[in-house]
Amino acid sequence: MVQTADRVLTVAARLFRAKGYEGTSTREIAKLAGIEKASLYHHIGAKEDLLYTLCDESLNRLLSGVERVLATEKDPRLRLQQAIHAHVLAVLADLDTHTTMLRELRGLTGARRAHVLARRKEYELMLREIVSDSQNSSVLRTDIDVKMLTLVLLNMLNWTIFWFKPDGTLSASQLADLLTRMYLEGAVASS
Amino acid sequence: MVQTADRVLTVAARLFRAKGYEGTSTREIAKLAGIEKASLYHHIGAKEDLLYTLCDESLNRLLSGVERVLATEKDPRLRLQQAIHAHVLAVLADLDTHTTMLRELRGLTGARRAHVLARRKEYELMLREIVSDSQNSSVLRTDIDVKMLTLVLLNMLNWTIFWFKPDGTLSASQLADLLTRMYLEGAVASS
DNA sequence: GTCTATAAAGAGATAGAC
DNA sequence: GTCTATCTCTTTATAGAC
Which pLDDT tens digit goes with each residue over A126-168? Predict the structure, then answer.
């Protein structure tokens, strides 16, 4: 039997992805979790706790993924490829949680919002270091600055959440491969 | 003097981008527009009207942009480049309106939601045709299917809304150029 | 076309029994 | 740890005067 607190978090993530944080009521969360609304407040202090916990969880997974890559792979090009894989597989394996982090940050206030923003920045800068190393090793082009190269990469990777279908013909791993090739080689026909 | 109805729409777009559709109250919209909340309802029937009008406006501009390119440019590669430019310039010239369309569709219900979804699909399919023509003319690679090539392109273009700074050092046109190069050539160093 | 006033529903959250 | 009942505030929207 899954603990109630975990189930609450799971259904909250599902609802936040489907209807947005502001668009989801605590009544809906309670109902989907199979408890009364008041019981919810035995497990959380406020609705915002759920959002914060989900964002934190998402970033913990992404950060530990890229840290593992940094610890185990030293070759710049392979590092980049493995970081892309780790990112895409993590995100697509739990669309509810990561979509919530990517889209619903607005719902957080004060120190928690600042904390999540800081960890997002931290993650972006780790990827930027990987991209930078690849530039220095002549793996990636240097006529576009590292910040842009990294932001475009994240654009390509993150927003697959809007159209990736877990039950489709393309697996997450296959999509990660495809994105890697497109990011590195581009869309032009090889002459 | 700008008409009240237009001002309402403008401030609604600004607020919807900043706080989300569900996170924005009609009180805030009225206040920022300089009228009482009740007066708002002389101009609109419901809050959702604002969201629908903004989504429709966004898609009208994007569709007419790509239609103009199709009408005036026949070369596949130039068509693709011009379509990218038209898209990026349109979106970045009015971040409030286009961000609302891209992010807040969830707030629409019923037939209006279906209508906006249909026009988004229509736009995607027009871009897909351009990409497909480029494949057939050996401009773009054919080892990745047209649907994926188009979705990745839209990923790259659309989500610049989250980090493009209108007052930054990079102009919208320069960013469009950069995205075009990255999409076509990729990130690898040319050997 | 804008106002003051208010209705009606829904939101997040709490009290206190079991 | 869950419940019933309720509080308080905010929400969207309307009525009707000017």
Answer: 999 999 999 999 999 999 999 999 999 999 999 999 999 999 9
Q: Is A167 exposed, middle or buried, given 0-12, 13-18 or 19+ CB atoms closer than 10 A?
A: exposed
- Whether A191 shows a pLDDT value over 80: the answer reads no
In whole angstroms, what is the distance from residue B51 CA to residue B55 CA? 6
Instruction: Round to a whole number and report the distance in Å from the CA of B33 to the C1' of C8.
Output: 26
Task: Tally A–B CB contacts below 8 A.
Answer: 102
How many CB atoms are closer than 10 A to CB B61? 18
The amino acid sitting at A73 is E
Assess whether pLDDT exceeds 80 at residue B1.
no
B42 to chain A nearest CA, in Å? 26
> What span, in angstroms and rounded, lies between the C-alpha atoms of B122 and B116?
10
Does the global pTM surpass 0.90? Answer: yes
A8 close to A40: Cβ distance less than 8 angstroms: yes
Between A22, A138, A139, which is nearest B23 by CB? Answer: A22
Residue A76 token pair:
């710049």
